[in-house]
Amino acid sequence: MITSRPRLFYGWWIVLTSALAMLFGSVPIVVYSFGVFLKPLAQDFHTGRAPISFAFTLHNIAVAAGAPLAGWLTDRFGARKVILPCTAVVGIVLLSNRFSSSRVWQLYAFFALVGLFEAGAGPVQYGKVVSRWFDRNRGLALALMITGVAFGALVMPSFAHLLITTGGWRFAYAVLGAAGLVIALPLVACVLKERPEALNLLPDGTAPMASQQFLKAADTGLSRGDALHTSAFWLLLGSVFLVSTATHACFTHLPAILADRGSTAQAASLASSVLGAGVLIGRTCSGILMDRFFAPYVAAITYAAAAAAIGLLRIAGSHELAFTAALFIGIALGAESDIVAYLISRYFGLHSYGAIYGVIFSDFVLAGAFGTFIMGVAFDSRHSYALPLALLCLAAIVGAAFMTCLGPYLYKPHGTSEAVAAQPSFEPSV
Fold this sequence. Notes:
Layout: H1 10-23, H2 26-31, H3 34-44, H4 49-77, H5 79-96, H6 104-118, H7 123-133, H8 138-167, H9 169-191, H10 212-217, H11 224-227, H12 231-260, H13 265-290, H14 295-315, H15 319-348, H16 353-382, H17 386-404, H18 418-421
């Protein structure tokens, strides 16, 4: 008897669920909406913006500290058993601010707790699940998954502003936390399945379960300890740090750079919107390209374009040039998350995907915080962005060069074309 296959592969429901869960997750709510909350928080806590900004720094440190442990727990117990409690805790913490006082230490504890548990309900966990469901189309699937965060970055700040004007910042965080509990949590609990074989399917929905060898291959890979002894790991770690430092520094300081050159607030805001559009383009197109071409080369070209854009931003004398630079910086910023998630699966496999991704994600978060901070320090000391932009351009160039040194995939897609697979042999370092 032949069983009819569903018209839509269930893996795409996994992608949609992951994207929606990340849309209502703490990254759009806390990270991308922080600027909207900054002034109301400073007013309510009767302090300056520097102490409030330090709360955001603590959040990033907590994410970086929690990511390696959350990744290991994901490999050990499964993504669902990490995502569900972490999503619940983040929602409860966001709701609990209604009962806190206006003491700064409580604000610090609030942001640190959100960051710590955010590490267990993010791209590391959802990326492992999606990577199990897709092989040939893994790049596109990961890109669509991360698009949930990008879309949240576009809509959540405006929605948060509306909530703040309606009932204040506490009300806004409470409503957004409740949305995670009411929407994301039940959706993940009901729809997210960790493995395609649970529904008698293979990755990409190619056929009903027929090959145990194919299924076993889905969980092969290096341990975190073995990955640390490969040149690929350190090249990827270095590239992520350099490029993340460069793109985040430009992203956060872009309005100030343009304002210093006489641009209006409206023009600076428009440049940020152009950069946001670039993030969406980068996240979607990078996934499509990595499924068709050798991913390190896609990454190298993307990062080289970002380096050129940073150099252009340094000398840009018109809005058109500045907007062009913002677009390509945004493309690199958006593509980087997809590139990292994809390359980890191809060079280290899925066995310890969470643990390895957790370390690199921590590197990504710390680099972003470092880039933003060092850009401000450099400007304060020299009263100009010229030198830091030149150094960031160089950093992006080195990051692109690291990508070209990675070598071939150790875990190639099934049915891979020669254009993607026929690369020089990969050798671990010792």
